[in-house]
Amino acid sequence: xxxxxxxxxxxxxxxxxxxxxxxxxxxxxxxxxxxxxxxxxxxxxxxxxxxxxxxxxxxxxxxxxxxxxxxxxxxxxxxxxxxxxxxxxxxxxxxxxxxxxxxxxxxxxxxxxxxxx
Length: 117
Prior knowledge:
By secondary structure, the protein is mainly alpha-helical.
């Protein structure tokens, strides 16, 4: 969404149950394992990973669109361009899992098609 990078904050200073979101002490993106202090995969961390993958696929598709246009300026790339512009913002606003999965599928198909050319 126009970002040039990513960072995230994590925090764990639990007093009692480290997985109790209601205690106000551990509201970060991931948790630490009590035995070896390693990060424990959480839904929030998985969501961050999914978002980073989506952003990477958008950049790949943008690059492939530019390469295709350089080869043939008359080529209609509007459908692929919508996937990395308007559709990306619509997915963010819609908060619909089904629409997001459909968008990811279209992204993958477009990348595959343009990579083959």
